[in-house]
Write a structure and sequence with these properties.
The protein is mainly α. The chain has helices at about 5-10, 10-15, 20-35, 40-55, 65-75, 80-90, 95-100, 105-110, 115-125, 130-135, 145-155, 160-170, 170-185, 185-190, 200-220, 225-240, 245-265, 270-275, 275-305, 325-340, 345-370.
Length: about 375
């Protein structure tokens, strides 16, 4: 074997940089968090391995015709993967708690404040308006929406934005409780909201995704792909006539697309594009967006508490973000720490599902305003 052949054989080692090694370690940490801590394992596991593979030199996987390049063009550049995942999310989601208590839609809307607050902060820190908007969308606590918006407005930031979005979603049980306790009093957290189920008719459940698609699409046309796919999945669920398709959407479709989406996102985490000060700033501002969203939902919850004569527990405002159903469970947990007999889960589910719709609308609004 001549030296040329040997150098080709060892090209991975010969071209390995310190940056590649650092990103491989980052990928390993994501895999560790997925396995040992069970933080969003369905996404962090493939993202972690994708990051490791993307930083092995001379593979050709990210070059034109390589598998990563093909997957990116096929599912991220044209937004296909996020839209397909939304079909599955819709098929999984029960909007019953929202329909039983429609006022919770206000909490979902309020909890999107962090998106626009972070957008302003990012512009002040030197990001252009499209990059700032993409960073702000991390606050939606909605991974597919974050990917959809950033792929159209700031594809060069897709890697750090996606990793920050999914990482913070997995850390909701750690991020939200301190903010909830800081902004509410013990007396407020003890407020009971008796749950009296008001049956929602089948026709209402069937009409809801259709009417929501029409109203949201007409108000913010740019949100139609996202809201339409979400409501299509929900319509399959609620129609009761396509159970096989509905179950396929929430199982096989979501599972396959999640694998492809995760490993493709990981492939964007190459050292040369990921290791810089801007990435650190994005991670910090992503945390700011999550915190502001939680705080805004809690503030409106406190206002509604007063206006309702203390019949609404302001904690449910924290679940207005789109991290479904994790955020609703966190509300229940924090409420139980004060009174283990206080049942807030279903009320929190109402604002949590409202947050899903509101985050999609916020993403569409940003795209409409910025011409994405």
């Amino acid at each position: 074997m001549d030296w040329t052949g040997l150098s080709r054989l060892l090209s991975g080692f010969l071209n390995l940089t310190l940056g590649n090694v650092v990103m491989m370690i980052v990928g390993g940490i994501l895999i560790y968090l997925a396995i040992a801590k069970k933080y969003e394992p369905t996404l962090l596991l493939p993202i972690g391995l994708g990051a490791i593979m993307a930083n092995i030199p001379a593979t050709g996987m990210s070059e034109e015709g390589g598998i990563f390049a093909v997957l990116y063009e096929m599912g991220i550049a044209n937004e296909l993967f996020p839209l397909l995942i939304f079909i599955g999310i819709g098929a999984m989601t029960d909007f019953g708690p929202l329909l039983e208590n429609p006022i919770t839609i206000l909490l979902g809307a309020a909890a999107q404040f962090g998106i626009f607050g972070t957008l302003l902060a990012a512009t002040l820190m030197g990001f252009d308006i499209k990059e700032a908007a993409s960073i702000g969308i991390i606050g939606s606590a909605d991974g597919p929406t974050s990917i959809y918006v950033s792929a159209r407005l700031a594809p060069q930031l897709l890697g750090p934005i996606a990793v920050a979005a999914y990482s913070y979603m997995s850390l909701v049980p750690i991020i939200q409780p301190p903010i909830m306790k800081l902004l509410t009093t013990r007396e407020e957290r003890l407020i009971r909201m008796p749950y009296t189920s008001r049956p929602v008719s089948r026709i209402t459940r069937v009409l809801f995704p259709i009417v929501t698609t029409l109203i949201c699409g007409l108000i913010v046309p740019m949100a139609t792909p996202l809201i339409g796919m979400l409501m299509f999945g929900n319509l399959m669920r609620e129609s009761g006539v396509v159970d096989r398709l509905s179950k396929g959407a929430e199982n096989e479709l979501v599972n396959i697309v999640t694998i492809l989406l995760g490993i493709t996102i990981g492939s964007t985490m190459a050292a040369e594009s990921f290791l810089n000060v801007r990435t650190i700033m994005i991670v910090i501002m992503g945390l700011l967006a999550f915190s502001l969203d939680t705080a805004a939902g809690l503030v409106l919850g406190k206002i509604m508490c007063v206006l309702s004569g203390r019949k609404i527990n302001p904690l449910i405002g924290a679940s207005g973000i789109s991290a479904f159903p994790m955020s609703a469970r966190v509300v229940q947990k924090v409420g139980n720490e004060e009174d283990f007999t206080n049942f807030l889960l279903m009320h929190a589910m109402g604002s949590n599902t409202a947050g899903q719709i509101a985050s999609v609308m916020a993403g569409g609004l940003v795209l409409a305003l910025l011409g994405g």
